[in-house]
Amino acid sequence: MPPIAKITGAGVVASCGRGRADFWRGLCAHRTGRAAVDDPDLHAEVRDMHLVEDAPCLEHSAARYGVEAAREALAEAKAAGSRVTCGDLGLVVGTGMGEATSLDRARASTPTDKRMFETADLIADALGLSGPVLSTSNACAASAYAVGLALDILAAGEASAVLVTGAEAYSRVALAAFNRMLALDPAGARPFELERAGTLFGEGAGALVLEPESSSATALGSLITADFSCDADHITAPEQAGVQIRRILQTVVGQAAPRAAVPHATGTQLNDELEAAILHEVAGEDLPWLSIKDTIGHAGGASGILGIIAALAMLEAGERPEHGPHGPWLDTASTHLGERTTAVGPVVVSAYAFGGNNASLVIGGAA
Amino acid sequence: MTIVIERAAVLSGPPSGEGSDWFDPRAHLGRRGTALLPRAVQLTAAAAAQLNVSGALACESHRRELWACTASFAEHMHDEMDAVVRAESAEALSPARAPYFSVNLLPARVAQDYKIHGRVVTITTPGTGLVDACASAALSLGSGRCDTALVVTTDVGGEVAEGSVALMLHPEGRGTHLTWARGFLPQAVTMRGFERLERLLPPLLAGPDVSLLTALEDAPRHLIEALPDELTEGRPLNAPNGRLLPQAIAVAEACQQRRTTTLFCCSRFGAWAALRLDPGAL
């Protein structure tokens, strides 16, 4: 199947590293950036997160991380020969919490004139964009859905290129709610492990410049296919038979024959059991998987695009790094994890979310 | 391909903080399984129910899509939950309501009610979210990705009307044709941004009988100065704080009254969007 878009630039900010090269080094070295948040108004048992910076957490900002990642992506696209200027660009931002950090701070002390979902506006204004600017908030699949919206905008010719950004920073309300739902593991996210007991949040942002296949720029990767579905079932748990997850995974695997995977892999009981079983069944028993949330945490709306950037790095490096000293894993996952492997081709990246929102995309390497 | 709004339903009333409550969720949704839902989720489900879409959703479930937009649901829930966390602890949060810190649960009940297995997307762009939701649904319909799309707009809290509006969109067929344009004019105004506005906006304003509606309460000066005079003389909607509900009500009324209408809206930073509604043949 021919790619549906070129990826001509990418940028990233995460707890394991800032900038694509440092991000990959941090992932390979399992540099976690894990620390307790220093918000005095958070009264909750689990206070750890994978944080991007040392500054007081109430001063963190999704938009600031988004701008940083976007600038790296645009610089990379320019170096790749892209003729796109900020004046030609559309922007789709995927964020679950937007500028919630500012609002958390404002409720406790410092007034703010920010609104929760002005992240996209702030990024567009900082970069001087003029194309369509959208914000989508499909929880933990938000930036994967943002890629889908960007593809629609490109296909319709509403913009000659689209910058897709996922961005997330500390949110007191989100961390408290996950505490209340007993969905956090004080030992850290342990994707696919038998002893896993929940996830840990992370901060971060990722950005991609998407251009039509006709663009003359050198692609650092490609988007081969993407599909989306909704369980229309439970508001937080995946539908038990995984019908809609399996449907879109079968579609993209059938179209693009991936040779590696970056699963959603949150460390929660239900997600990992179901995802491992379906991915194992649909995409093959020997496919190497890279789970990244044990290192960078669950960056909510940014997690999908961070998975894509990890996939690009894996394709560039030609290897899937060794997983950390973890295990034992679920039976359906154990053959896919573990030691370093060099058998890497197109990578299927998945992101799932509250509300039963599912996304699967396949990323190819440079042409 | 022509995309049409086939039907529209409006459910709206005064803010719930003003004494008597105009909305009884049990009357709209029945008595089972709705009492603990946040009001915004109840309103969204009730507006969709008012559309009477069951018979019209003849397509396969994975060919249905749902697009939701709101300017207030998340902040409303976060204000409520944060007060509990700061005064007591996370443990004191209601377990039934805790998941609703996530704004994308606003349309979850509608997705369940109508078995929507295609994309269910929550759009949160301030000021222009309704046009973005309609445009995104139309692009999906136009590309053949889906056969039917619902667009729901809900706002709650504050001192202005609250409620929900549901629209049903189809490719072709009877209804109100929709076209749109959108862009961004940064505060450091760029020639490209100005040219885009100047190129894309006039066709949506053209014609002798176009009713112009504007949501400009948040509009920054640099954008106002760039707009054509006819637009600044349009009928203003009372849509403070980027509220999308007044826009959605106006769109629904234009569809129901078969009035050629263009809605122009924007964000505080310079995102702008216009939606033109042309009544099709009966």
How would you characterize this protein structure?
The complex is a heterodimer of chains A (367) and B (282). With 367 residues, chain A is α+β, with helices and mostly antiparallel strands. In chain A, 33% of the residues lie in helices and 20% in strands. Chain A has helices at 20-29, 62-79, 100-108, 119-127, 142-156, 172-180, 243-256, 269-283, 293-296, 303-317, 331-334, and strands at residues 5-14, 17-18, 34-36, 48-50, 89-94, 133-136, 161-168, 204-211, 221-230, 260-262, 347-353, 357-364. In chain A, the strands form two sheets. In chain A, strands 1, 2, 5, 6, 7, 8, 9, 10, 11 and 12 form a ten-stranded mixed beta sheet that branches. In chain A, strand 11 and strand 12 form a beta hairpin. Chain A is globular, with a radius of gyration of 19 Å. The two termini of chain A are 14 Å apart. Chain B has ten helices and ten strands. Chain B has helices at residues 25-29, 39-50, 73-87, 108-113, 129-143, 191-200, 202-205, 221-226, 229-232, 245-257, and strands at residues 3-13, 64-69, 120-123, 148-155, 162-171, 176-184, 211-215, 235-236, 261-266, 271-279. At the A-B interface, helix 3, helix 4, strand 6, helix 5 and helix 6 of A face helix 3, helix 4, strand 3, helix 5 and strand 6 of B.
Report how far apart the termini of chain A are.
Answer: 14 Å
Choose one word for the global shape of chain A.
globular
Task: Tell me the number of strands of chain A.
Answer: 12
Unreliable spans of chain B: none
Q: Briefly note the structural class of the backbone of chain A.
A: alpha+beta
Largest sheet of chain A: 10 strands, mixed
Q: Give the count of helical stretches of chain A.
A: 11
Q: Please indicate the count of domains of chain A.
A: 1
Helix content of chain A: 25-40%
Shape field of chain B? globular
Structural class of chain B: alpha/beta
Please report which band the strand proportion of chain B falls in: under 5%, 5-15%, 15-25%, 25-35%, 35-45% or over 45%: 15-25%
Cα distance, first to last residue of chain B? Answer: 18 Å
